[in-house]
Write a structure and sequence with these properties.
- This protein is α+β, with helices and mostly antiparallel strands.
- It has two domains: 55 residues, Multidrug-efflux Transporter Regulator, Chain: A, Domain 2; 50 residues, Beta Barrel (OB fold (Dihydrolipoamide Acetyltransferase, E2P)), CATH 2.40.50.100.
- It has four helices and six strands.
- The strands form two sheets. A four-stranded antiparallel sheet has the order 5-4-3-6. A two-stranded antiparallel ribbon has the order 1-2.
- The longest helix has 16 residues.
- The mean pLDDT is 81.
């Protein structure tokens, strides 16, 4: 039977390790305890993820589908506001994203360092580059 470390469960659920620990301590999610690290049963994690998805799907968001596929979950690392615009920096895994949005939108979303966001990248131009490779040239 598969089981997951707290950090793996957190990544799969899109939350922090501390959130998973709070859920375990609060009885919302069960985990094994013993001499090693606490582990979450795979079936229990799947049930919990489905339950959360059902609860979270009931929202006031009128959008039921999106064309954007380049969506990355990340944490806001820096916000710089002026009177009209805001520059928001996000760390999404190994990727650093910088977005310019209206100050009004930034304030409405209450963005600040540590906020969890989904960055949706939508571009009309995509630049392709060839990385330096070792070994014989191909083509």
């Amino acid at each position: 039977m598969p089981s997951f470390r707290i950090s793996e469960a957190a990544e799969l659920l899109g939350v922090s390790d501390d959130t998973v620990r709070r859920w375990i301590d609060g009885g919302r999610l069960s985990a094994t305890t013993g001499s090693g690290p606490r582990m979450v049963d795979g079936a229990e994690l799947a049930r919990f993820a489905q339950e959360r998805a059902t609860v979270n799907s009931v929202s006031r968001d009128p959008v039921v589908g999106r064309s954007a596929r380049n969506r990355m979950v990340g944490l806001v690392t820096e916000v710089t506001r002026d009177t009209v615009m805001a520059q928001v920096q996000v760390q999404a895994g190994p990727f650093r994203l910088v977005s310019l949005i209206s100050r009004e939108a930034c304030d409405e979303l209450q963005l600040e360092p540590g906020s969890l966001v989904v960055a949706s990248v939508n571009a009309t131009d995509v630049v392709m580059e060839l990385p330096r490779r070792s070994g014989p040239d191909i083509g």
